[in-house]
Write a structure and sequence with these properties.
- The protein is an alpha/beta fold.
- The chain has four domains: about 110 residues, Response regulator (Rossmann fold), CATH 3.40.50.2300; about 160 residues, Rossmann fold; about 80 residues, Helicase, Ruva Protein, domain 3 (Orthogonal Bundle), CATH 1.10.8.60; about 60 residues, no CATH class.
- It contains 20 helices and ten strands.
- The strands form three sheets. It has a five-stranded parallel sheet. The chain has a three-stranded parallel sheet with strand order 1-2-3, with helices on both faces. It has a two-stranded antiparallel sheet with strand order 7-8.
- β1, α3 and β2 form a beta-alpha-beta unit.
- The longest helix is centred in the C-terminal third of the chain and has 33 residues.
- The chain is extended and about 100 Å long.
């Protein structure tokens, strides 16, 4: 569907390949065909005289959800084509359609996918880049999007919390792109001062600033014909942003202090852990640069939203650490404990936890007590019935103070019930002994709590007392510690 010449040409080409083809020149004609005929594949132009392609795509997916859709688009509507992928389109093709072999291949792939029982490849994807899909539907969609966008050679914005794997995803995109055999260079824009970042990106001439003792190439030269990953792009200064905009628009730049106009054929993938639109509204990030970078956006979910992928991620990190034999020794309780944690540091934190546990497991078997204390405590909290969010907010800390009364009341009820049962069996309750036992237990409970909190605070009694709403004298009393002996030395 689309312009007459393109539509009729594609029809003739597809008929020669023995496909059955129907065409529509307007949105209204397309609606009628979709409502009255079943199709296996629809080629859809986003620009139509009386409708837009995205609205038609939504209708197609509502009436024929198993029908594959391929978007045909001009470069100016690439963003809409990417949005169409999010809505369920299989792929998109840029006009003009110059390479018909590519066209036939996309058609064939779409039909093969449509005939499969599972339209989403469920096989785990562990590549040399470490990009792991897992079982989460969101990650499968990101994988599909990455595979579609990789050969398109457009700029991509990856958004996600720190540690979600933005650089890993960018390396995967590079590895399946046309630039796979060319350099991949990652630069963290937040790790440099303004002047050093400019020099890192564009290079500098000898003597251009203090310390520039020789000419130096920047990554836009070094990674020519390859991929440049700009992490923490929101940290780049407005001055650097202007230069980035120029090289993205023209493919040309100057070294710091240089006069030679240098050309660069490079693909840029940018990443941010912030809502960059808010920075645009505050005037801290250029809207025109965001427009250039954000041709397509991939949003990585935090690890807490893909808990079911933890076993596969753990297997990968174990193999990465060269401990293949340990995988089979992981107990269900270890996985359960890992799954109970909230992972504020996301996949990067999980990687560190696995490395820590492997170091602790000298016998080659990871046990629950090999995990870091924060994981163990989180698991214990979960066992008491508190959720991740409950463990994080001050209002829920107050709720726990209230809930502990219920726990104590339940203990009293259970303990009293036990004593009444003993009386029914023996006709006697030694109440003085019971009261002595409760008094002794009170001290034991206090000491156990104090020692646990003190261990978390590395033995700091003042911090421990503050967290327990005690003064240090009361804390020492409950621990049954003798007052420290102080020796005064000096003149009388």
């Amino acid at each position: 569907m689309g312009q007459v010449r393109v539509r009729d040409l594609l029809k003739r080409l597809l008929l020669k390949k023995d496909y059955q083809v129907q065409t529509a020149s307007t949105g209204q004609e397309a609606y009628k065909l979709m409502d009255n005929h079943m199709f296996e594949l629809v080629l859809l132009d986003l620009k139509l005289p009386d409708s837009d392609g995205l609205t038609l795509l939504k209708h197609l997916k509502s009436v024929q959800p198993l029908c594959a859709a391929i978007i045909i688009t001009a470069h100016s509507t690439t963003r809409s084509a990417v949005e169409a992928i999010h809505l369920g389109a299989f792929d998109y093709l840029d006009k003009p359609l110059e390479d018909m072999e590519v066209f036939y291949k996309v058609i064939s792939n779409a039909l093969c996918r449509q005939y499969q029982n599972d339209p989403v490849n469920a096989d785990k994807e562990i590549t040399t880049t470490g990009f792991i899909i897992g079982k989460t539907q969101k990650m499968r969609q990101i994988k599909q999007m990455a595979d579609i966008l990789a050969p398109k050679d457009i700029t991509i914005m990856i958004q996600g919390e720190t540690g979600t794997g933005k650089e890993v995803l960018s390396r995967y995109i590079h590895s399946v792109s046309k630039r796979a055999n060319q350099p991949f260079i990652a630069v963290n824009c937040g790790a440099f001062t303004e002047s050093l970042l400019e020099s890192e990106l564009f290079g500098h001439e000898k003597g251009s600033f203090t310390g520039a003792i020789s000419k130096r190439q920047g990554v836009f030269e070094i990674a020519d014909h390859g991929t440049l990953f700009l992490d923490e792009i929101s940290e780049a200064s407005l001055s650097v942003q202007v230069k980035l905009l120029r090289v993205l628009e023209t493919g040309e730049f100057f070294r710091v202090g240089g006069k030679e106009n240098i050309k660069s054929n490079i693909r840029v993938i940018a990443a941010t852990n912030t809502e960059i639109e808010k920075m645009v509204n505050k005037g801290k990030f250029r809207n025109d640069l965001l427009y250039r970078l954000d041709v397509a956006r991939l949003i990585l979910p935090p690890l807490r939203d893909r808990i079911e992928d933890i076993p596969q991620l753990v297997d990968y990190f174990i193999e990465k650490n060269g401990s293949h034999h340990i995988k089979e020794s992981l107990s269900g309780e270890v996985i359960q404990m890992l799954s109970s944690y909230n992972w504020p540091g996301n996949i990067r934190e999980l990687s560190n936890v696995v490395a820590h546990s492997l170091a602790m497991a000298k016998d080659g078997k990871i046990k629950p007590y090999h995990l870091p204390e924060k994981i163990i405590q989180s698991y214990k909290t979960q066992e008491l019935g508190f959720t991740h969010s409950q463990a994080q907010t001050s209002s829920d800390v107050e709720k726990r103070v209230i809930d502990k009364e219920e726990i104590i009341n339940k203990f009293i009820e259970d303990f009293t019930g036990y004593l009444i049962q003993e009386y029914n069996d023996t006709g006697l309750i030694d109440l003085p002994s019971v009261l002595d036992y409760l008094k002794a237990s009170q001290g034991q409970v206090a000491q156990k709590i104090i020692k646990t909190i003190m261990a978390e605070n590395l033995g700091d009694r003042q911090s421990t007392a503050k967290k327990l709403n005690l003064n240090t004298r009361s804390l020492r009393y409950l621990l049954k510690e003798k007052p420290a002996k102080i020796k005064m030395v000096g003149k009388s």
